[in-house]
Specification:
Blueprint lengths: L7 H11 L8 E2 L2 H7 L2 E6 L9 H10 L3 H6 L1 E4 L3 H13 L3 E6 L4 H9 L3 E5 L3 H15 L2 E2 L6 H18 L4 E5 L4 H13 L4 E7 L4 H8 L22 H7 L5 E5 L1 H13 L7 H12 L8 E6 L6 H10 L2
Parallel strand pairs: 2-10, 3-4, 3-6, 4-5, 7-8, 7-10, 8-9
Antiparallel strand pairs: 1-2
């Protein structure tokens, strides 16, 4: 594996850059969860982050890292919601024009927030190919700079600051865990863990219906998923990014998966027992802990609860239909 242009020092630099802008989110525990899994689980509540998810860290770090010329031209991204919201807010705070390409099937609450932060919203078909086609068109027509949701070195470094804070506040840990979509958070978490200790194990968690990261890690090469269908809408990426894969494939020990009923049950658990507003995507690590797919008995575990941007009407219907 080739050396990457970023390392643990990049996460530290991102933390300094983000200090005036990002919330230092709280770390919480649930006695009930600890009892059920027979371990000690500390949860980093990124649902309290600005824009409602960890994505603000990567988006803001990326925009802060751009040249004045690039900022003046504006930026573009594609996103099912959270990264788009985060980049829109970063642009609003820094006076940078933002265009977000989103699938027309993205949760309405996330699309409304993107526009609410002042970004220009461009809807596309719910396929990765359609996203990329629309982004390429925006770049060609308007000279915008792409801030990719996960395949971007500055984004990865920014995402790693969540795990760095978690470890500094509540460590040491045997394991740190986070959900996996495009894998920018997993790559950043890997860098932060290695900066803290060579013995911390790093695990990912993803829906069984979108298990491209698990298959990629096991095979040593990137595998894809064909437009996966899962309630965890933030984890519906069709493949992990080449840049984050070049990092996490050297560090991550395992990627556990959760079924759709397990994800729904974990979302209900986080809401009802932990009193936290959490979207299904960020309940996936909790789902793997509760099911035993991520065996944490006797371990100290840090988990990043990645976001809380929830379509309440859709979630209420889902929870009502589940046992």
């Amino acid at each position: 594996m080739h050396e990457t242009p970023i390392g643990p020092e990049s996460v530290a630099a991102a933390a300094q850059r983000l200090a005036p802008w990002a919330n230092r989110t709280p770390v919480m525990q649930s006695r009930t969860l600890n009892s059920l899994c027979d371990g000690t689980v500390a949860i980093k509540c990124e649902n309290f982050q600005r824009s409602g998810s960890f994505k603000f860290r990567g988006a803001m770090n990326a925009v802060l890292s751009l040249s004045d010329e690039a900022r003046a031209r504006g930026v573009v991204t594609h996103s099912s919601g959270n990264h788009g919201q985060a980049l829109a807010l970063a642009g609003k705070l820094l006076g940078v024009g933002v265009t977000v390409v989103s699938p027309r099937t993205a949760p309405a609450i996330k699309l409304a927030a993107i526009e609410g932060y002042g970004a220009r919203l461009v809807l596309c078909e719910p396929t990765f190919a359609s996203r990329e086609e629309h982004v390429s068109r925006e770049i060609a027509h308007h000279g915008l700079t792409l801030v990719h949701p996960f395949n971007d070195w500055s984004v990865i470094a920014g995402q790693g600051t969540a795990a760095a804070e978690l470890i500094a506040e509540a460590g040491p840990f045997d394991v740190v865990m986070c959900p996996v979509g495009g894998s920018g958070l997993l790559a950043g978490t890997s860098l932060a863990a290695r900066a803290a200790s060579p013995t911390i194990r790093v695990w990912g968690a993803e829906p069984a219906a979108a298990d491209d990261a698990r298959r990629s890690l096991e095979a040593g090469v990137i595998h894809t998923s064909a437009d996966p269908v899962t309630i965890a809408d933030g984890l519906r990426s069709t493949a992990v990014g080449e840049r984050p894969f070049s990092i996490f494939s050297r560090i991550v020990e395992r990627i556990a998966t959760a079924t759709e009923p397990e994800i729904i049950a974990a979302t209900r658990f986080v809401w009802e027992r932990m009193k936290l507003v959490a979207e299904p995507s960020c309940a996936v690590p909790i789902a793997t802990i509760l099911s035993g797919a991520a065996p944490v008995k006797g371990l100290r575990v840090g988990v990043i609860l990645s976001g809380g941007n929830v379509d309440l009407s859709a979630l209420a219907r889902l929870l009502a239909e589940s046992p």
